[in-house]
């Protein structure tokens, strides 16, 4: 995926006009991944905000509006603190900026206080909190009567490691040679076998955040805001654990963090022993997806930091996964 941050800036500037920000408004890009996210400050009015400029073609307007519906419902029904969207001058929550023959969508959110947990000081308590939050989202998703017009994509087998992988083919990841391809193909086959045996019944497969990790929590004076629902969609509920340990799957502290996450989850909702035994399969599923994602996101910070070492680490985890017949990594 090629990224043109200059175009993102132009789209952001044009979008802010629709929200009645002044020409003096300052924008600063704070994240560039699937989308470009900006911190916005208007010195004329004192208004602040967070503007998300969507990657072209990733979500249609209907899907973005559906994401905002879930954010509203979580705040209202489950007491989960989520970003609050701001309506444009015409009342729209999702606006479209036309660039020649192309369309880019954007959403403005109220500015949220807080900082994400320090990656260098992560402890089991953080993962217990994350597990409890995850269970609250799952509990809500299982009982929420979604509006008829609600639409989000799926992270099922076909759209993760199957025929239509949304983040690209893992086989095209960085550092995939003949040896890696042969070895990881065996691992992928075992992941698929275990997922098929586990099944996708309604109690196991539903609406999930799909990127619920510590980096997407903002902690502010005891309040925890859950952010970045852009990847939310339908998948196995326990896929959220695979997401929780993204890029740290081979950390030696993972067993401790895993236990803490489980304890936090069970404080809120049921997690059976069968489900617990599937957690490492979802870690491997997510790991393969990130190998694919890194292959097409050369601009991302994680790619710059990890590169082909991430694929090599995936091979090591895969060896342990195969040796245990998928029971552990």
From TrEMBL:
Q: Give the domain of life.
A: Bacteria
Please list the GO terms describing molecular function: homoserine kinase activity
Which GO terms fall under biological process for this protein?
Answer: threonine biosynthetic process
Does the UniProt entry include the keyword Manganese?
no
Going by the UniProt record, its keywords in alphabetical order are:
Transferase
Its family?
Belongs to the pseudomonas-type ThrB family.
Q: What is this protein called?
A: Aminoglycoside phosphotransferase
| Species of provenance | Leekyejoonella antrihumi
Question: What lineage is this protein's organism placed in?
Answer: Bacteria, Bacillati, Actinomycetota, Actinomycetes, Micrococcales
């Amino acid at each position: 995926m090629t990224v043109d941050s200059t175009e993102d800036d132009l789209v952001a500037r044009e979008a802010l006009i629709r929200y009645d920000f002044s020409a003096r408004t300052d924008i600063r890009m704070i994240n560039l991944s699937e989308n470009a996210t900006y911190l916005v400050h208007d010195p004329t009015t004192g208004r602040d905000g967070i503007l998300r400029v969507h990657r072209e073609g990733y979500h249609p307007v209907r899907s973005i509006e559906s994401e905002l519906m879930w954010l509203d419902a979580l705040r209202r029904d489950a007491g989960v603190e989520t970003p609050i969207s701001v309506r444009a001058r015409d009342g729209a929550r999702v606006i479209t900026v036309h660039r020649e023959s192309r369309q880019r969508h954007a959403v403005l959110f109220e500015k949220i206080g807080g900082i994400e947990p320090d990656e260098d000081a992560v402890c089991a308590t953080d993962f217990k909190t994350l597990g409890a939050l995850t269970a609250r989202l799952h509990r809500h998703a299982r009982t929420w009567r979604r509006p008829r017009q609600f639409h989000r994509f799926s992270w099922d087998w076909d759209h993760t490691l199957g025929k239509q992988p949304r983040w690209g083919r893992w086989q095209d990841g960085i550092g995939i040679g003949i040896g890696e391809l042969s070895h990881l193909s065996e691992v992928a086959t075992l992941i698929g076998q275990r997922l098929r045996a586990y099944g996708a019944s309604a109690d196991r497969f539903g609406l999930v955040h799909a990127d619920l990790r510590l980096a997407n929590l903002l902690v502010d004076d005891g309040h925890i805001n859950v952010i970045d629902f852009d990847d939310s969609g339908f998948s196995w509920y326990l896929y959220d654990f695979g997401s929780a340990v993204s890029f740290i799957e081979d950390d030696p502290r993972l067993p401790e963090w895993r236990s803490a996450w489980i304890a936090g989850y069970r404080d809120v909702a049921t997690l059976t022993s069968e489900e617990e035994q599937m957690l490492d399969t979802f870690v491997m599923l997510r790991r393969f997806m990130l190998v694919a994602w890194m292959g097409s996101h050369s601009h991302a910070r994680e790619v710059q930091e990890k590169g082909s070492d991430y694929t090599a680490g995936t091979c090591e985890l895969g060896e342990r996964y195969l040796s245990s017949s998928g029971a552990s990594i």
